[in-house]
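Dear colleagues,

I hope this message finds you well. In preparation for our joint manuscript, I am sending the Tellurium resistance TerZ family protein (Mucilaginibacter pankratovii) sequence together with its predicted structure, so that both groups work from identical material. I would be grateful if you could confirm receipt.
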Amino acid sequence: MAINLQKGQRISLEKSDGAKLQNICVGINWGAIEKKGLFGFGSTKEAVDLDASCALYDDQKRLLEVVYFGNLKSKDQSVRHSGDDLTGDMGGDDGIDNEVITVDFSRLSPAVTYVAFVLNSFRGQDFGDIPFASIRIYEGTPKRVTEIFAKYDIANGAAFKGHVSMVLGVFYKKNGEWKFNAIGEPTKDRKLEETVKTVTQNYL
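The corresponding structure tokens are as follows:
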């Protein structure tokens, strides 16, 4: 049964058959901004560069490492980033995620207690100006969706207008079991480093 969380909800990630969650993906799909021509004639497409990132923390809430477009794999290879998409969908929504981060919990270092996902607009383009931008956190692989845990529509969500960064959600380990907190909150940050600091201070 699919779980579609709203922000602020928490769930255990043990399945109904008692099996433990193994693989998580965070996929982001977005489009280029359409600019109207002079006097409303014609239009051009402005590339949009959104960046998904993943921050790993220990049980003392100390930052261990960040997986992002400049560091595509964690040291233990359990977290992988598909690579930096600099434009978004220039020809309309193709239904395919532009960036995907995968986490293999079975390979994740035992030192990791928190796995936080954030999104930043690299060029400072307002989330509210992007024609479509959706995020989904799901079990599976980049090519297979097994179960969706949370979905966010940041292009059409009023709370995201005027912002260029947000915290998607945090997986956290409690009594040896992984759980998920769907946060879905915009922040006032401008850069990835600032957003990671906000996570450390407010969301762990």
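For the figure legend, we might mention the following. The chain has a mean pLDDT of 88. The radius of gyration is 17 Å.

With kind regards,
E.M.
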